[in-house]
Write a structure and sequence with these properties.
This protein has a six-stranded parallel beta sheet with strand order 8-3-2-9-10-13, with helices on both faces. 33% of the residues lie in helices and 14% in strands. It is α/β, with parallel strands linked by helices and 350 residues long. The protein folds into two domains: 2-63 and 75-108 and 187-248 and 259-299 and 328-349, Rossmann fold, CATH 3.40.50; 116-180, no CATH class. It has ten helices and 14 strands. The protein starts with a strand and ends with a strand.
């Protein structure tokens, strides 16, 4: 059995600036982490007997900082900031028990199927952000592929239109969300693409204190499909029947190699729910018993809500209810690790 203890928050942590953009002082944080780990007798991650992985999905400025393109406000209006405060404190207080951290980064360019420039109507206008585009809309010509972006995407205007029609039809057949036109967001190389500073600082502190490198994964670069899930895009085959991408098995491998996989991130209704759903599918195909290793930090994630336009809270809650029914554990960030379901016999509270 492995000893665990809840740790104090390090002195550099400031909950009041979690919702702001700033530069992490790596030099000072590295020195702080070395000193703090000695004071708290935190061992290197390589010595862990109980292996806990933390999966953080798309904790980027574009989703988590007020005023950015797709700030996940939830019904409270400040949800992502509150989620990240709880998450940072969860990381620091359980730093000695978290073996490894995996991070996904939503990564986009302007000319992608869910951005306004990709589509036009009969008047040559682009759809407004949060427009829902159905298969019927594309079939009847309400929205069509913008031929001006064809050359940049390496296709003809006709191929682009065929791909758009194919994609909208596949979404409908699969019972997924309709094609959603999102504001330009998580643009590669832009400030919105960066991790939230407070989260980045916590990850860096964990890296130095526990001598373990986080795994960082880029997702969402395919121009002709949305990619909510970190495991694979919404549609895997193109109009020619050739693969657009394959599903990433690294997350399933993380479940196999660890005793627990803890999940948090944004947004609960989209990228988190889609990733967990794909992970569940992979687990059920490989070994259904592995589902008991999944722990969902339900107070460190929130749904997309835009007052007067969309509210995906109910869909997000329904998804989490289904995950729990499948055998996953819903936990909260302040729950003592020794009280988590399924840990009996694995740990010794310090």
């Amino acid at each position: 059995m492995q000893d665990i203890k809840k740790l104090p928050l390090p002195s550099h942590y400031d909950a009041e600036i979690v919702g702001e953009v700033w530069r992490v002082n790596y030099h000072d944080r590295a020195a702080d982490a070395r000193d703090w780990s000695k004071q708290q007798a935190v061992p290197p991650a390589s010595s862990d007997e109980l292996k806990i992985a933390l999966l953080l999905i798309d904790l980027q400025n574009t989703f988590c900082i007020p005023g950015f393109e797709l700030f996940v406000a939830g019904r409270s209006g400040v949800a992502a900031v509150e989620d990240n405060r709880r998450l940072c404190e969860f990381i620091y207080r359980n730093l000695g028990s978290i073996t490894s951290i995996q991070v996904t980064l939503d990564t986009h360019r302007a000319m992608q199927i869910f951005h306004p420039v990709y589509l036009i109507n009969a008047e040559g206008e682009h759809p407004a952000a949060l427009t829902m585009v159905s298969y019927d809309d594309v079939r009847k010509g309400r929205w069509r592929f913008n031929p001006l972006v064809a050359e940049s995407l390496g296709v003809t205007a006709e191929q682009g239109q065929e791909q758009l029609l194919h994609y909208a039809r596949k979404l409908e057949e699969q019972g997924k969300y309709e094609l959603t036109i999102w504001p330009y967001h998580a643009m590669l190389g832009g400030i919105g693409h960066a991790l939230v500073a407070a989260v980045e600082e916590a990850l860096f502190f964990h890296t130095i204190a526990r001598s373990t490198q986080p795994s960082i994964m880029i997702k969402g670069e395919y121009p002709n499909t949305e990619s909510y899930s970190a495991i694979g895009p919404e549609v895997l085959l193109g109009m020619d029947g050739q693969p657009i991408a394959s599903k990433d098995r690294s997350f399933l491998q993380a479940v196999i190699e660890h005793d627990m996989l803890v999940v948090a991130g944004q947004a609960k209704s989209h990228c988190v729910a889609s990733t967990v759903s794909d992970l569940l599918e992979g687990i059920l195909e490989h070994d259904p018993q592995l589902v008991q290793k999944i722990y969902l930090l339900e107070d460190c994630t929130s749904p997309v809500v835009v007052p007067g336009l969309v509210d995906f809270s109910d869909q997000a809650d329904q998804a989490y209810s289904e995950f729990a029914a499948a055998g996953m554990h819903l936990i909260r960030s302040a729950d003592p690790l020794e009280e988590w379901p399924g840990v009996e016999g694995l740990i010794t509270p310090a």
